[in-house]
Amino acid sequence: MLETLQNLGLGFQVALAPAVLWYGFIGCLVGTLVGVLPGVGPLAGISLLLPVTYGLDATSALVMLAGIYYGAMYGGSTTSILMRIPGEAASVMTCIDGYAMARKGRAGPALAIAAVGSYVAGTVSVIALMFLAPPLAAFALRFGPPEYFSLLLLGLLVLAYMNSGSMLKGLAMAALGLLLGMIGIDQMSGYFRFAYGVAELGDGIGVVPVAVGLFGLAEILLTAGQPNPPEVIRPRLRDLLPSRQEWREANMPIWRGTAIGFLIGIIPGSAHVISTFVSYAVERKVSKHPEEFGRGAVAGVAGPESANNAATSGAFVPMLALGVPGVPVAALLLAAMMVHGVTPGPLLIQQDPRLFWGFIASMYVGNVILLILNLPLVGLFVNLLRVPYPVMYPIILVCSILGVYAVNSSVVDVWIMLGTGVLGYVLRKLDFETAPIVLGLVLAPMMELSLRQALAMSAGHYAIFVTRPISVTLLAVGVVLVALALRPLVSRTLDWRSRLPAES
Amino acid sequence: MTVDRVAGVALVLIGLATLWESRAFPLGSLHRPGPAYMPVLLAGLLIVFGVAVFAMGARARTLREVGWPEWRHAVAIFAACAFAAWGLDRVGYRITMAVVVGFLLLVLERKGWVLGLGLTIVMAWGSFYVFDTLLRVPLPRGPFGL
Hints:
The complex is a heterodimer of chains A (504) and B (146). Chain A is mainly alpha-helical. Chain A has one domain. In chain A, 71% of the residues lie in helices and 1% in strands. A two-stranded antiparallel sheet of chain A has the order 1-2. In chain A, helix 5 (92-103) packs antiparallel against helix 6 (107-140), helix 6 (107-140) runs parallel beside helix 12 and helix 7 packs parallel to helix 11 (271-286). Chain A starts with a helix and ends in a 10-residue tail after the last helix. Chain B has 146 residues and is mostly helical. Chain B folds into 2 domains: 3-65; 71-134, no CATH class. Chain B is built from 5 helices and no strands. Chain B is flat. Chain B starts with a helix and ends in a 12-residue tail after the last helix.
């Protein structure tokens, strides 16, 4: 403990050096601006700006790139709240209640709560990262294909169970998303599936075009032609900050989101996406007013935003402790380390303590910079709502098309966005939620791979999922959720007396 | 027909179509699942969910009760987006976006010429400058270099 604190002191000496601080600030600023542009997420932002860091020393370069990562994660939530365009899959859940809050004139509080939630989650998870990195990373390594499959299945069941509508509809949408994820080259056999000669579909259907289509475009198709278009919102200065009641409503969701995000973020894969879905689902379940979710519930913004940022730090656990990149962004940061002559892995902490602890301390500093930077920007961003909707939506459309195109420079992605936009429009008319489709799509490749690997490991015996402790525990939780979901249906069916005519 | 019943039928049809298309790939065995294994599994699930949604959907809203007052606008916006997808590589980014924004603002929303043209130019040329010139994201120029 004492040694850790001494090391952290060394880290702060490094992180608070003026040059490192300056590059951290530049990283957060550029990241926020890049994150606001739809389609240009943290991965694209870091890729674009990686060459800029070649002239810097390793610590400054890493701090700047991590700043871009945090900034872009936060910037993505801005477009989700103001325009209902998720910059990436992790912002999908913020779209739902964040945008609803914006339409009620509470965009400022939504953005402020997202900023503060991100700050709290980021800071707390860095503390946890410091003390828990080695044991947690070792635990994460105990996840083999059966455990992954069970975890992903549980993720889908949790989301469907805590859906505002029926669990059945949620599961149907998740299955549809998983099916969309089957398009493209099969990772194990190399077969080109369901692509019908379109070479661009080889890598599968991208999450960004689907998320922008289902949320952004579908919203425009539904709203633009309404007889009464959304009113222009002129936010007043006092409306920019959350009220006392809104702070109270955000308090516990921020802490719960932090815990959920950090714990799920440690597991390699698309964990930060799953954490936002799980956090949203948990908040809806524990809320005294679940009917407010989807209509501008503060907890619906605070929870997922905190989870997203906590998972960001959680994702650094395997990267720093083991040199194993859990997410694509961590892989890019590892590549940046190697470019600067640093060998990532378990020995990094001994061989280069200044860099290791400087990076950890820069996370604290980065979170503070992000908060200082973003709270004043809330007022600036909220002014976008002063633009009347008939003028605003063509601008949003251009941003959506541009952002989707820019990811792969492919018009096929634009067509996918159009297709999923129409799908989202129809599904919302039919009272189906579209978020499970995105989660299904994100999880599909990993879920299929882990199922097939697990079956190959067990010579085709499904028993492998119930003979391994972690896997069976996860599945048991899933079974309990299904049973809880079925309980009202069963009790309604059994309660035949209530349907008998009253005796006179 | 209720909305849930329509959705149930659609889910079953998607499941059946997936089963049909999956014939092109080996199913494999339990020991070594092939590329069709997961799609077939999911198609089966989708059919089961579709049947269940249909069976439990008798009390949902009817299709007639769903209002579609915005459909003309939605079709026009979709057509503008489809033009953008068609035109990006063929006529270039700036011309395509200028046509899309101009159509939406001036024709569909009937905004004034000054606002409409001003915003069209700012969006088409401004976004090109930010992405292509500053961020180095290559955007299509088309045969006219625009």
